[in-house]
Write a structure and sequence with these properties.
The chain has 347 residues and is of the alpha/beta class. The protein contains 11 helices and 14 strands.
Length: 347
């Protein structure tokens, strides 16, 4: 459908979002404060801005001094209501990203619930040891007023040039960025021009205390999903790979694979894709078509492919995932995390 035909939908969507914010601003809808520090990691655009890697970075650092709970809506799950994620949970019950975080941080309380206020009260009741909550994707929620808002901004899609859904990728109003405390600009070029940084700072900073950090995704050598069955380890540069992704913005993932390996096929699926038997059959047929190739996927997709019983051995031995983290360009990650810790402890 052309953008001209989508424009009226975008207009009414913007009006709806604007009216909802007004209801909070006027006090008709209430934002609830809690007696526990809450760090909200959010964005105002759809697609992968790096919320999950940022949550993992914050959990890894803050867990040295705090008992943390991660609260997520659990987008894409087939269940409703409050659920605590366990190591044996299925991604269709709790969502792929919460399960990914639980598997990485087994001692962290991970909870999914659409009603964030209700979930926070249950966490406080059932886990009194928790003294810090990291709330994933709650910037638009507004029923909970976090102590700190960390807003993820995609450098490849500047908000000043973007438009509201479904014409553009904006899910919220750019005017709402005044509520953020930290801006984490992701997907920056490694050598970002000073003028581009100044332009972004001018666009983003509305209030003196707001701070901007520039980052990029750092990709590591793909690891076998089933290490005991891997056909090769590690994955040598230049080998044949089949790129598999079911994430919001797969371009950086695909770009990295094309730079390091010989990509013989690409499978690009919708974000939060549910893998079925037909997908596994497709993997097997592509591996047969390209002898010696392996399948490289994302961490988020890997969580959904760990059911060994449903995947034939010829596919299991060729499944790899690519770990990523967020690398700070201008300042150090430690600088950001220490300031975040000061804010958590301060008033």
């Amino acid at each position: 459908m052309s953008k001209a035909l989508l424009a009226p939908i975008a207009f009414f969507y913007k009006m709806g979002v604007t009216f909802r914010h007004r209801l909070f601003d006027w006090g008709f809808l209430k934002s609830e404060r809690f007696d526990i520090p809450i760090i909200c990691i959010g964005n105002i655009t759809v697609g992968g801005t790096g919320k999950t890697p940022m949550a993992e970075m914050i959990i890894a650092y803050m867990s040295q001094k705090h008992n943390i709970a991660l609260l997520s809506r659990g987008y894409g799950r087939k269940t409703k209501g409050y659920r605590e994620v366990s190591l044996s949970s299925h991604y269709r019950e709790v969502g792929d990203e919460p399960l990914q975080i639980k598997l990485k941080f087994p001692d962290t309380v991970v909870v999914v619930c659409e009603k964030r206020s209700e979930a926070i009260r249950r966490i406080r009741s059932e886990h009194p040891e928790v003294d810090l909550i990291v709330m994933d994707d709650g910037f638009q929620h507004r029923y909970v007023e976090p102590k700190i808002n960390v807003l993820m901004i995609d450098a490849t899609r500047p908000i000043q040039h973007d438009r509201m859904l479904p014409v553009g990728s904006l899910r919220d109003l750019p005017s709402q960025i005044y509520r953020a405390h930290y801006f984490i600009v992701t997907k920056c070029p490694e050598k970002m021009a000073p003028i581009d940084r100044r332009i972004l700072r001018k666009v983003l900073i509305q209030i003196a205390y707001q701070q901007v950090y520039y980052t990029r995704f750092e990709s590591f050598i793909p690891q076998p999903l089933f290490a005991d069955e891997a056909s090769r380890e590690p994955l040598a540069q230049g080998c044949k790979v089949i790129a598999l992704s079911g994430i919001g913005n797969p371009e950086p993932f695909l770009k990295t694979l094309h730079e390091r390996y010989k990509v013989v096929a690409e499978i690009t699926l919708d974000d939060h894709h549910v893998y079925r038997v037909r997908d596994i059959r497709l993997f097997a047929s592509l591996l047969a078509k390209h002898p010696g190739a392996v399948i490289v996927t994302t961490e988020k997709d890997a969580v959904k492919l760990v059911n060994r019983a449903k995947i034939p051995s010829e596919v299991r031995c060729a499944l790899y995932y690519q770990p990523i983290n967020i690398s700070f360009i201008e300042d150090s990650a430690t600088d950001f995390l220490q300031k975040l810790e000061e804010d958590v402890r301060g008033n």
